[in-house]
Amino acid sequence: RPIVFSGMQPSSGSLHLGNYLGALVNWVALQDEVDPIYCVVDLHAITVAQDPAELRTQTRFTAAQYLAAGIDPERSTLFVQSHVPAHAELAWVLSTITGFGEASRMTQFKDKSARHGAEATTVGLFTYPVLMAADILLYDTNLVPVGDDQRQHLELTRDLAGRFNSRFGETFRVPEAYIPEEAARIYDLQDPTSKMSKSAASDSGLVRLLDDPAVTAKKFKSAVTDAEREIRYDPATKPGISNLLDIYSTVTGTPIADLEQSYAGRGYGDLKKDLAEVVVERLSPIRARTLELMEDPAELDRLLAHGADKAAERAERKLADVYDRVGFVRRR
Ligand code: TYM
């Protein structure tokens, strides 16, 4: 069975619709056919300043949302990154074969450091993609289901795997990105040329899994569109409508062409109202289940500990191999 690895940062209490449609939906769908490993990447979350108490809550909330969305802890290995020290350890080794210039070219780093300013730009933010490569390479991962914004990080991961292999011998499997066609990039509802992101300028364009259903509906009804009247998919000239159609199509499984046909001659208001309904219908049970799971954090922690045991066993084996290959003396 192909090995699948992916993760999300617990850097906000709620995941958003981009995280869900771009990645989490695929994580769930892949479960039956693969050996899935899903991680809450808390080490990544501290690359920008965090509040410790909030991080703890958000980490549990993120795991609870994975479960609520359909991740089955029996079929999937579900764990928290900091519970498996091999991630940080392999990241160190990989950082020594990563070029400074190579890391400097990462567009997410450039965007984030521009946003946070020179003072808040840490070495951790810079080496973030190397830690991500370690996450993936520790498990002999075949496929990495992510949104389009992770494409460049995946390329770096593949480069590092190949470089290590050619310098020290076959050690890592070179993984492939698994990026959906339609929902790879969900855009902000208020600013449909920017991707939906937790660091959005305004809250009203960001659809959170844990928003109150009335709030979600309102966000869709006030989505920014254009001055035409035609419901037609054309991301270049109609980014707002195209984003709504993308979301609609992914949530319901209806091809975009069919949506265009059934909304021919109808107004934007109809589309927004219907879409608000289908999204709320999809997200409501996830929200309810997440809140239910959060009522028993001890049970959640128990599940995560079990996942960490399973992950650690695999990760430690790979790390030991890496340590041998780079020439470290084995501890007796
Ligand atoms: P993160 O936490 O920013 O996002 C989690 C996942 O959501 C996807 N995503 C989107 N997809 C479509 N439209 C959007 N607007 C949108 N916004 C986010 C992301 O592509 C991602 O799949 N570096 C990663 C976390 C990570 C990771 C890993 C992923 C760490 N180690 C190993 C895979 C494998 C990140 O920051 O994702």
Name the assembly state. Answer: single chain
Number of strands: 5
Distance between the amino and carboxyl termini: 35 Å
Major sheet: arrangement of strands: 1-2-3
- Could you describe the largest sheet, including whether it forms a barrel? 3 strands, parallel
Order of helices and strands: EHEHHEHHHHEHEHHHHH
How much of the sequence lies in strands comes to: 5-15%
What is the C-alpha radius of gyration, as a whole number of Å?
21 Å
Count of helical segments?
A: 13
Binding site for ATP: 9-11, 18-19, 147-149, 186, 195-199
Family: Belongs to the class-I aminoacyl-tRNA synthetase family.
Binding site for L-tryptophan: 135
Protein name: Tryptophan--tRNA ligase
Comma- or semicolon-separated keywords:
single chain; 332 residues; mainly alpha; three-stranded parallel β-sheet; two-stranded parallel ribbon; 13 helices; 5 strands; 54% helix; globular; binds tryptophanyl-5'AMP
Task: Describe the structure in your own words.
With 332 residues, this protein is mainly alpha-helical. It has 13 helices and five strands. The strands form two sheets. It has a three-stranded parallel β-sheet with strand order 1-2-3. It has a two-stranded parallel ribbon with strand order 4-5. α3 packs across α12 (268-293), α4 packs parallel to α13 (297-326) and α7 crosses α8 (151-168). The protein is globular and about 75 Å long. The mean pLDDT is 96. Bound molecules: tryptophanyl-5'AMP.
